[in-house]
Amino acid sequence: MDFANLDFDRKNRTGFPEVIFCERKPDEFLVDIYKKMYERDGQVFGTRATEHQYDIVKAAIPEVTYDKVSRILKAVSPDIKLPELVGEIAVVTAGTADIPVAEEAAQTAEYFGTKVNRVYDVGVSGIHRLLENVDTLNRTNCVVAVAGMEGALASVVGGLVKVPVIAVPTSVGYGANLGGISALLTMINSCANGISVVNIDNGYGAGYTATQINRLAVGNRNEE
Predict the structure, then answer these.
(1) Do 160 and 134 touch, CB atoms closer than 8 A?
(2) Among 32, 25, 75, 19, which Cα is nearest to 52's?
(3) Coil, strand or helix: which one is 44?
(4) Nearest residue to 170 via CA among 106, 94, 72, 119
(5) What is the DSSP annotation of 131-173?
(6) Other CB atoms closer than 10 Å to residue 224's CB: what's the count?
(7) Can you point out the beta strands (E) in the chain?
């Protein structure tokens, strides 16, 4: 393709196929990329898509589906069997405004074969809601903690669970949140152990990494 160099070998190298970042791609480029990948692999997964992009891709690939919350645009051929969901991770949010980023993480992990337990709206302003779910979180292989405002949720979760925590700062918050920078700095400076941090609003990156952790955990148990 004149405008894109698609990486069809990525799954062989990394275990994950190439994913399309839809935001700001010209219409004709996006449609051609989806068509090429769908024709070759029978499935395509894209993030940060708009409803307009859904409409134009659907005209070319009727099987495409769009989730307005996560903004995920994916197409899976009826002939393709997606991987069985294995293991388990938890995706936790501080508030309902953080759910779009959380759903990007959750649906990414599910697409790649990970079972996801969603625990939403359990932020520190009502910490009893989180404490009621600690046992559930500890039964998973990884926790993705998604929070805006000051981003304190990740530190609290990190101090309560025995599994790795992936912190996702969101751009949710008033002016001093600085578009997610305050939450990012809080998470980076957490004194709780076992926390790693992805970029602001990067639900996809968190879901990807959580799947890697989950695969290792499942593989280790299968070898025992």
Answers:
(1) yes
(2) 25
(3) strand
(4) 94
(5) HTTHHHHHTSS-EEEEE-TT-THHHHHHTT-SS-EEEEE-S-S
(6) 4
(7) 20-21, 43-47, 64-67, 72-76, 86-93, 114-119, 143-147, 165-169, 195-197
Which strands form 72-76's sheet, in the order they lie side by side? 20-21, 43-47, 72-76, 64-67
Which residues are registered as beta bridge partners of 146?
A: 93, 168
What tens-digit pLDDT sequence spans the chain (224 residues)?
A: 788 878 788 888 988 888 999 999 999 999 999 999 999 989 999 999 999 999 999 999 999 999 999 999 999 998 888 878 999 999 999 999 999 999 999 999 999 999 999 999 999 999 999 999 999 999 999 999 999 999 999 999 999 999 999 999 999 999 999 999 999 999 999 999 999 999 999 999 999 999 999 999 988 666 65
At residue 138, the pLDDT reads: 95
* Cα 65 → chain centroid: 17
Residues 6+ apart with CB under 8 A from 128: none
Nearest Cα to 148, choosing from 129, 169, 167, 165?
169
DSSP conformational letter for 81: -
**Alpha helices (H) along 61-138:** 99-111, 128-131, 134-138
